[in-house]
Write a structure and sequence with these properties.
Layout lengths: L1 E5 L2 E10 L4 E3 L7 E6 L5 H17 L13 H10 L1 H4 L4 H16 L9 H12 L11 H20 L26 H9 L3 H13 L3 H5 L6 E2 L4 E4 L10 E4 L2 H12 L10 E2 L2 E2 L4 H10 L9 H12 L4 H8 L4 H7 L4 H25 L12
Antiparallel strand pairs: 1-2, 2-3, 2-4, 5-6, 6-7, 8-9
Helix pairs in contact: 2-4, 5-6, 8-12, 12-13
Length: 378
């Protein structure tokens, strides 16, 4: 540190902490980063004088932050955000990293934070809405909104660090969402899907179909979470999207499958669902191929949650119990996953009619002396 010689001249290097306002000399301070200044001379003595001045200015707090309000580039903000320890530990880190690198940096990377206005963000939102998604279809509003939400979180970091006076995304309206899906797989379709699925996918499908667990919860499932004596899967807070523990009951069919997998498990591998002796990392390609071969259209893996919740409701399980099993925290979200078809409504009407008929019959039986209306004589 201090004065260093390079091919193109003399440089001054010091570890500093940047608080967004000034640079402070910080030897041995956690979080400090090396800041380099190029001197304006090739003479070592003169360069040493500049080194002394820079050191004095650092100690007196006279050097302004390069990250003053609006002076930081979006690309630098993105780097800082992705390196934050509170971000790297998140389950969605890879998605966020991909979204930033593939979408946000190409759009805003060359701009300073002060140049990113609400109007520019609205233009990005509208442009994103025109992008093509899976199957060459226009993106759903929720997909565009997720990138805006990520952008908002990043700018919140910039505001908190003093790099921006306010968050420009807070002045932008998010696209109106209507992403509710009601695709429920029938028993016949599920049997067909299993027949065309790869062996490692069949167990994953069955677990999703009969429990409503999320894909990440299934692929991350380890044997210490499976309680065979009690017939349940015990998910811990770190396993779930909502960060809340959950107990999921197993059906006899799923229990039998897991017992079979347990007998042939690989030593040193704790995950339940494996492919070639290793935990399953992704199933999108295999799942889409199985759907094509089985001629099942408009069905996504996440729709297994819709299917499981709907089947539980049809089986007569009360809403609160279903919510405990599926992990839905609010009734509003639960309703999105609970699909009612015409057959369900007809069944409800039939059961209601049966109830009224039986109630009326009991009323007549219990009141033999009830008033009988006689028809009028002519």
């Amino acid at each position: 540190m201090g004065l260093t010689k390079r091919k193109d001249g003399w440089y001054v290097e010091f570890p500093v902490v940047d608080d967004g306002k000034v640079l402070q000399l910080a030897r041995g301070t956690p979080g400090a980063k090396v800041k380099r200044w190029k001197t304006s001379t090739a003479n070592k003595t003169l360069a040493g004088q500049q080194e002394a001045k820079i050191k004095t200015d650092l100690m007196m707090g006279k050097l302004k932050s390069a990250h003053g309000p609006g002076q930081l580039s979006f690309k630098a903000l993105a780097k800082t955000y992705l390196e934050a320890s509170t971000v790297t530990c998140q389950r969605t880190y890879n998605w966020k990293k991909g979204m930033i690198q593939d979408r946000l940096i190409p759009e805003f990377g060359s701009l300073l934070l002060s140049q990113i206005t609400p109007l520019r963000i609205e233009r990005y939102r509208d442009k994103r809405m025109q992008d093509k998604g899976y199957g060459n279809s226009t993106l759903k509003p929720a997909t565009a909104n997720r990138s805006l939400a990520l952008l908002k979180v990043m700018f919140s970091l910039a505001v908190r660090e003093g790099w921006m006076p306010r968050n420009p995304v807070s002045l932008v309206k998010f696209a109106k969402e209507n992403n509710a899906r009601d695709r429920v797989l029938t028993a016949e379709e599920f049997a067909r899907l299993q027949a065309y699925s790869a062996p490692h996918l069949q167990g994953v499908n069955l677990c999703a179909y009969q429990t409503g667990m999320r894909l990440g919860e299934i692929l991350g499932l380890t044997w210490d979470r499976v309680d065979f004596p009690q017939g349940v899967i015990c998910l811990r807070p770190e396993d779930t999207k909502t960060k809340e523990a959950r107990v999921v009951p197993m059906t006899p069919e799923l229990t039998s499958l897991l017992k079979t997998l347990y007998k042939v498990r690989y030593l040193g591998e704790d995950h339940v669902f494996l492919v070639k002796g290793k935990s399953v990392g992704a199933i999108k390609t295999a799942f889409n191929a199985a759907c094509r071969r089985a001629q099942i259209q408009g069905f996504r893996f996440h729709d297994f949650r819709h299917t499981a919740v709907t089947n539980m409701r049809r089986a007569g399980i009360d809403h609160l119990t279903i919510m405990r099993i599926s992990g839905h925290k609010t009734m509003e979200v639960f309703k999105r996953y609970n699909s009612f078809h015409h057959a369900d409504l007809r069944e409800a009407a039939s059961r209601f009619n049966t109830y009224l008929t039986l109630a009326h019959s009991r009323q007549l039986t219990d009141s033999p002396n009830s008033l009988t209306i006689q028809p009028k004589r002519p």
